[in-house]
Amino acid sequence: MADPVKRRYDTSRRQEQARENRRRILAAASGLFREKGYAGTAMPEVAKAAGVAVQTVYKAFASKAVLLKAVFDVTVAGDDEDIPIAGRDFIAAIQAEPDAARKIEMYLEHLAGSAPAVWPVQLLARDAAAADPGAAEVWAQMRQEMLTAMTYFSADLMATGQIKPGLTAEDVRDVLWTYHAPEQYELLCLERGWSPERYGKFLRDAIVAAILA
């Protein structure tokens, strides 16, 4: 009969090895996507850069599009912990803040800090969507997830009672969603050379002016 302690040890070691492989694959894919683009990156290249077999890559991520979405999710979160964005400390702090303008400022400070890492990955999906059905699905998923997140943020802001009279929760959501789009970062930072800090302050001022009384 197999030793249950040894079996648990072996299982734990395999799980840790799988997590380590996943981290290495994500790091390798992130670098290659940024360097060569989505279309220019092949799964065997990712495997070679990660130091794993290509079968290991496909076992962890069924397709290149799935891998791109995973790279995006980890970049947004800042780690690979199994904690949704809604459960992160910075979201809890925003929800606890009673002042609507300060809520927006706190959110935009976080967004501006993460933008140089996050938005280029999302823009990769957008650009690849025209030619790759898998990337198109990922792009649509990213946009829907952001719309959902801004729906929750809108409800949080509406609850303060500090929104302009006449604006509905859907109006506020749409304003947040529009200013949150990666195209804003693309235009201002990538094309016009703005700093992330200036970009964040611009969005903060624009959103406050648009929706707060």
Automatic annotation (TrEMBL):
In terms of superkingdom, the source organism counts as Bacteria
User: Which keywords label this protein?
Assistant: DNA-binding
Annotated region of DNA binding:
42-61
Q: Where is this region: Disordered?
A: 1-20
For molecular function, the Gene Ontology terms on record are: DNA-binding transcription factor activity; transcription cis-regulatory region binding
Q: Which residue range or ranges hold the HTH tetR-type domain?
A: 19-79
Query: Entry's PANTHER family?
Result: HTH-TYPE TRANSCRIPTIONAL DUAL REGULATOR CECR (PTHR30055:SF146), HTH-TYPE TRANSCRIPTIONAL REGULATOR RUTR (PTHR30055)
Q: What is this protein called?
A: Regulatory protein, tetR family
Species name: Amycolatopsis australiensis
